[in-house]
Amino acid sequence: MSHSFKALHLAESQIAELDLQLLRRRLRATESACDTKSTVDGRELKAFCSNDYLGLANHPALIAALAEGAKRYGVGSGASHLISGHSVAHELLEKKLASFQSQHIPQARALFFSTGYLANLTAITGLVRLAPSGQASIYSAKLNHASLIDGVRLAGAQNKASVTLFDHTQLDSLTESLKNDQKPFKLIVTDGVFSMDGDLAPAKALLQIAEQYDALLLIDDAHGFGVLGKQGHGILEQDNLNSERLIYIGTLGKAAGVSGAFICAHDSFIEWLIQKGRPYIYSTATPPAIAHTLLTSLELIEGEEGQNRRTHLRQLIEIWKKEMVFAQWEKSFSSTPIQPVILGSNANALLAAKLLDEAGYWIPAIRPPTVPDGSARLRITFSANHTVDDLRQLIHQLKQIEQTSMVQAS
User: Are residues 383 and 366 in the same domain?
Assistant: First the structure.
């Protein structure tokens, strides 16, 4: 091979640099269904790392619904929504998703996507195109998910929108920036539940700011949909918000247990995104069988079983808060199924994950750039399928591993 192949040399040298920084990620293939126990490399591990918060990913009713959907609609959609890929299954799902938010968004309408990443890219880039080039401002929370960050960057590049980052725990700087912003279009972008810390966005305060300064408020509730609110409708239900300014994005591959995502907003905004949202226009539609399956998932989320599962999750969270006491490791405050344990260095996080793996647990180390430098962690997540005994065994194991790692580190 020619030594002049510089791109290959760059790839190999930079991968080596990732190894030196303990930042190289590696794939692990599971051999079983998503649940609280996973078979990985021929070993059964207790999994506390998935986003299947309600434990629906392997639910018999959803398995049956997917089989029924495939029998009725086949396994592919064949084209984008605007060509021939939009099925009655998609239509029914979008109407049901809109009904979930109808008390919070006037004239609510929903648009279904294959992933949350696509939904966020479409919403941000499409909405910013409502303004002439250079006449839009975007205000983005510093700890937003990568899909929001990329949507903001793309919108800024495409439409010359100004971008300002803000701290969601301290809103004075956001208010001050908006006070001096004379542009005709302003968009505030935030996660509903911050995926690496598990804390909630101050949605009510952000909406008040948006109303005061004539901005839209986009909330990506990927980790709140299905979990927050009495009926699992998400952060808008929990905080009892109502406004035409709300752009709500929910994910359907986490608590809903299946796949996909959606944007819910006032009908006029959704119609605009259908006309101008490039990722939506130019993507093949999700298989209708998936949309059909999600209709059953939404019934479970909204019904008695969903309420019981959320009640059990809250019980697990309370036990963790009371009983998981560390000697040195840092536990973040979270009222959600996301419970991070901050270990600081990449080496500390990798060691803890290795010791957990040896003890039969699957909880990967989370390192930069997913989290800020110096805040590598274990991201522990609960499922409604975890029992109280499962959690208490984990707590016992973590206490032992903390002691072991402290000895090895010294």
Answer: yes
Q: Is the pLDDT of residue 247 over 90?
A: yes
pLDDT reading at 405 higher than 80: no
Give me the catalytic one of 168, 254, 312, 386: 254
- Residue 378's domain comprises 29-56+307-409
Residue 404 pLDDT level (bands cut at 50, 70, 90):
confident
Q: Catalytic annotation on 195?
A: yes
Three-state SS sequence of the chain = CCCCCHHHHHHHHHHHHHHHCCCCCCCCCECCCCCCEEEECCEEEEECCCCCCCCCCCCHHHHHHHHHHHHHHCCCCCCEHHHHHCCHHHHHHHHHHHHHHCCCCCCEEEEEECCHHHHHHHHHHHHHCCCCCCCEEEEEECCCCHHHHHHHHHHHHHHCCEEEEEECCECHHHHHHHHCCCCCEEEEEEECECCCCCCECCHHHHHHHHHHCCCEEEEECCCCCCCCCCCCCCHHHHHCCCCCCEEEEEECCCCCCCCCEEEEEEHHHHHHHHHHCHHHHCCECCCHHHHHHHHHHHHHHHCHHHHHHHHHHHHHHHHHHHHCCCCCCEECCCCCCEEEEEEECHHHHHHHHHHHHHCCEECCEECCCCCCCCCEEEEEECCCCCCHHHHHHHHHHHHHHHHHHHHHHC
Segment 131-155 mean pLDDT: 97
Of 38, 195, 259, 405, which is the active-site residue?
195
Residues 274, 142 share a domain: yes
Q: Is 223 a catalytic residue?
A: yes
What are the tens digits of pLDDT across the range 180-217? Answer: 999 999 999 999 999 999 999 999 999 999 999 999 99
pLDDT given at position 409 = 56
Find the mean pLDDT for residues 246-267: 98
**CATH code at position 368:** 3.90.1150.10
CA 241 to CA 209: how far, in whole Å?
Answer: 13
Domain count, the chain: 2
Which residue in 81, 90, 104, 223 is the catalytic one?
223
Q: Is residue 288 domain-shared with residue 314, that is, in the same domain?
A: no
pLDDT, residue 400, reads 92
Residue 403's pLDDT band (cuts 50, 70, 90): confident
334 catalytic residue (yes or no): no
